[in-house]
Specification:
The protein has nine helices and nine strands. It is an alpha/beta fold and 281 residues long. The protein has two domains: 158 residues, Rossmann fold, CATH 3.40.50; 114 residues, Nitrogenase molybdenum iron protein domain (Rossmann fold, 3-Layer(aba) Sandwich). The strands form three sheets. A five-stranded parallel sheet has the order 1-5-4-2-3, with helices on both faces. The protein is globular. The chain starts with a strand and ends with a helix.
């Protein structure tokens, strides 16, 4: 087993795929724990890789338990990519191939894929790992990575521009998944739930958020499509606000899959909803 740590500040590498292992030995076999890691690995690998995504779309990775088939896919992959920081601690590290993780276990927020700047290093790391495992296609991997990095740069520029002049800089979100977004774009993100969306909020937290929303004039409370919206809806009703989706991009809903949405389109929708909620000019 070869364990790769590429020395990035918050990231190292990733990979992606489908729900069942594919054994086309002409392609690099990659296993990725869940959607955003898998998406980037697919974009960089293109026709040269087969990616297996362990957590099916529509399923929260916090709640997931792998099947024996999932474990086999991870063990037999040429490249295994998992997140770390407790989000996918069910991922086996007994792979026969290279093992890459996206966040250090000491990180308090595992949701680094929401930061398009950090994701640029992540994408380059994918290209480097693929090239090491499959040097015959090094140029192809790098060309694809360069194209994705340009998309990420453009996404960051859009966020910087549209969130630069807003009446509010506070938003209330469903769970504590947006620390990197908050730090990158100078937003005060106030979560109803903790890092794990299955935790129950305290009555004190709800009362404080209600008072803050009324005082600050917050008109929108964010919820997520893969978890219950009830707490966000209850808080919104109490303060006379509306609800909007802010996706942590841990997976795609059935509706998003049917509409052909992906990492970039959902990120743009998040930006639209942030700009609306913060009353940006």
């Amino acid at each position: 087993m070869k364990r790769i740590l590429l020395g990035l500040s918050c990231l190292t590498l990733a990979a992606t795929g489908c729900t069942t292992p594919i054994t086309d030995t002409t392609q690099l076999q990659v296993a990725a724990s869940f959607y955003p890691l898998a998406y980037m690995a697919e974009q960089v690998g293109g026709e040269y890789v087969t990616v297996t995504t362990i957590v099916p779309n529509g399923v929260e990775p916090h709640d997931f338990a792998p099947t024996p088939q999932d474990i086999v896919a991870m063990i037999e992959a040429d490249v295994l990519v998992y997140n770390g920081a407790g989000l996918d601690n069910w991922a086996t590290t007994e792979s026969n191939g290279q093992i890459i993780f996206a966040t250090d276990d000491s990180a308090t927020d595992p949701h680094v894929w929401l930061d398009p700047v950090l994701m640029q290093d992540f994408v380059q790391a994918i290209a480097d790992a693929y090239s090491a495992a499959d040097p015959d296609h090094q140029i192809g991997y790098q060309d694809k990575a360069d194209a994705v990095i340009v998309q990420l740069q453009n996404l960051n520029n859009s966020y910087q521009s549209r969130l630069a002049n807003c009446e509010l800089n506070q938003v209330i979100v469903a769970h504590d998944a947006f620390t990197y977004v908050a730090e990158r774009y100078n937003i005060a993100v106030l979560p109803i739930l903790g890092v794990n969306p299955n935790e129950a909020p305290s009555a004190k937290t709800l009362a404080e958020l209600s008072a803050l929303a009324k005082t600050a004039g917050i008109e929108y409370i964010f919820f997520e499509e893969l978890t219950s919206p009830k707490l966000s809806e209850t808080l919104a009703a109490e303060v006379g606000a509306q609800t909007l989706v802010l996706s942590p991009l841990e997976g795609l809903s059935e509706e998003e899959q049917a509409a052909g949405e992906d990492y970039f389109s959902i990120s743009e929708q998040n930006l639209d909803n942030l700009a609306l909620a913060m009353r940006c000019q």
